[in-house]
UniProtKB/TrEMBL annotation:
One Pfam family of this chain: adh_short
Source species: Ixodes ricinus (Common tick)
Similarity-based family: Belongs to the short-chain dehydrogenases/reductases (SDR) family.
One GO molecular-function entry: quinone binding
Lineage: Eukaryota, Metazoa, Ecdysozoa, Arthropoda, Chelicerata
GO biological processes: fatty acid biosynthetic process
Protein name: Putative mitochondrial/plastidial beta-ketoacyl-acp reductase
Keyword Oxidoreductase among record annotations: yes
C-alpha cells in the first residue's frame, strides 16, 4: 500500500467579540484541532510516505486567510491558522523539499457558485 497525497482540511472556528472574551478552554480546543491536528496528520503522513518510498509526495494542509492577517473576532482561529502557515513553510524547507515532496497551505480557494 502506498500513500502519495494527503489533504488535511480539519479546522474549527470560534467567534468572539474580542480576545478577552475567548475562554481558555475554547482557545485550547481551536489550537488543538487546527494546529496540533495539522502537526499530527503531517507527521504521520510524511513518516508513512518516507517508509514506503512514495513518489510525487504532497501534503496539503488547508490554512485560512485569517492566518495571513488576522481578524479581531477570530483570535484563536487566526493564531492557529497563522501557525499552520508557518509550520508548512518549515516542513517544506526542512524535510519535504529535500525528499522530492511538496508541502502546501492554501488560504483562499476561488470557485464558481451557481
Amino acid at each position: 500500500m502506498s500513500l502519495s497525497i494527503v489533504v488535511n482540511s480539519a479546522g474549527i472556528v470560534h467567534n468572539a467579540s474580542g480576545v478577552e472574551n475567548v475562554p481558555e478552554a475554547v482557545f485550547d480546543k481551536v489550537i488543538g484541532v487546527n494546529l496540533k491536528g495539522t502537526y499530527l496528520v503531517t507527521k504521520e503522513a510524511v513518516t508513512w510516505m518516507l517508509q514506503k518510498n512514495a513518489t510525487g509526495r504532497a501534503v496539503l494542509n488547508i490554512a485560512s486567510v485569517s492566518g495571513k492577517g488576522g481578524y479581531p473576532f477570530l483570535s484563536a482561529c487566526s493564531a492557529s491558522k497563522g501557525a499552520v502557515i508557518s509550520f508548512n513553510k518549515i516542513c517544506g524547507i526542512r524535510s519535504c523539499a529535500r525528499r522530492n515532496s511538496r508541502q502546501q497551505h492554501p488560504t483562499w480557494l476561488h470557485g464558481h457558485h451557481p
